[in-house]
Amino acid sequence: KENFDSIPDLEFNPIRGKIVHAFFDKRNLRQESDGLVDEINFEDFLTIMSYFRPIEMNMDEEQLDRFQKEKLKFLFHMYDSDHDGKITLQEYRNVVEELLSGNPHLEKESARSIADGAMMEAASICVGQMGPDQVYEGITFEDFLKMWQGIDIETKMHVRFLNMETIAHCY
Question: Name one GO cellular component term (predicted).
Answer without folding.
Answer: nucleus
